[in-house]
Amino acid sequence: MSPRTTEQNEMIRQERKVQILEAALHVFAEEGYHSASVSKVAGKAGVSKGLMYNYFHSKEDVLRALMSELFDHAMSLLKIEENEVITDARFIEIVSLSVDVPLREPQRWKLYMSLVFQKDVTEMLMTQMRPRMEPFMKSLSTYFMSKDYDDPIAMMRYFSAILDGVQMHCLLDPENFPAEKAKAYLIKQFV
C-alpha cells in the first residue's frame, strides 16, 4: 500500500472537519452550547478529544466554524450574491426559496434555530455574522427604498422578522402550515 498523497490527506481532513461540525450541531442544539462538552462533541463525531483539538482550538472555535458553515449553506441555497440588485422577480425567488429551505432540510434547520435562540450564542456570533449579512441587508433595504417605503431599513427588518416567523412555523408544523399561501401573502404585501 502506497502512502497517501497530499490531496488525499487534505480530503480526509476536510471530511473529518465536516463530521465534527455535524456532531457539534446536534450536541449544541440538544444540550445547549454552554452545557455541551468538547468530549461529547468528539464522542458523537467518533473521534478522540485530542484529535478534535487538531481541527479546532476550542469549543467556541467549533461554534464559530459551525455557524459560518450554516450561514454559507443558507446563502448558497438562497443564491445570495454580495451587493446584488434585487428586482421584483428576484425578491419573489428569495421569498420562495426562504420558505422552501426549512421544508427541504427540516432537521438541520431545527437544530440551527435551536442554536440561534440561545441568547448567549447569538450575542457571541453577532460580531462574526453581522458583517457577512450586511451586504444582503443593504440590498434588501435598497429594494424597499425602490418601493418608496419611508423607512426602508425598518421595512427590511419587518420583512425579515415575518420571514423568520414563517420559517419557524414551517419547521414546527410542516404538514399543516400553509407555506404556499404564506409565500403568496408575502409577495402580495411586499412586491
Summary of the model, kept short:
The protein has 9 helices and no strands. It has 191 residues and is mainly α.
Architecture overview:
- The protein is an all-alpha fold and 191 residues long.
- The protein folds into 2 domains: 56 residues, Homeodomain-like (Arc Repressor Mutant, subunit A, Orthogonal Bundle); 125 residues.
- Helix content is 78%, strand content 0%.
- Helix 5 crosses helix 6.
- The radius of gyration is 19 Å and the shape is elongated.
- The topology string of helices and strands comes to HHHHHHHHH
Which secondary-structure class do the elements indicate? mainly alpha
> What's the number of extended β-strand segments?
0
**Strand residue percentage:** under 5%
N-to-C CA distance? 62 Å
Helix content: over 70%
**Number of H/I helices:** 9
- Output mean pLDDT: 89
Biggest β-sheet, characterized?
Answer: none
Q: Which geometry do the CA atoms define?
A: elongated
| Gyration radius, in Å | 19 Å
Number of domains: 2
Uncertain segments: none
